Amino acid sequence: MINVAGIINIIQMWLVFALVAVVVGMSAFSLIHALTTPAQAFTSEGKRTRNFWVLLNLLALVISFLALTPTGPVGLFGALMALIIPGVYLADVRPAVAYWRRRGRGSGSGSGGNRPPTPW
What we know:
The chain is mainly alpha-helical. The protein has one domain (16-102). It is built from 5 helices and no strands. It has helices at residues 4-36, 39-44, 50-66, 75-82, 84-103. α1 (4-36) packs antiparallel against α3, α1 runs parallel beside α5 (84-103) and α3 (50-66) packs antiparallel against α4. The chain is elongated and about 70 Å long.
């Protein structure tokens, strides 16, 4: 006889693992992006400092990594709370500092392109 409850439990466990793995990936990507973006980009675009975002994304990475194991101390709720940090970074900060990353790749300082105007 098939143990339906056991099969559902295994499926749920893998779905939670996949969800937490996505949060770990987002946190790692946000951390690497913050580390490789010039520090001047954050303050000149009116965002918090690079160190602030690096520390927050590192915290999110640690919390979500601790949630990877089913018996971990953080659990799914902690991983979902940690998702807020890279979510805000990727939705708000990353597009704002994107110009500075393109500029650092040799497009020259005189080519403003379609950079949004600064408030000053």
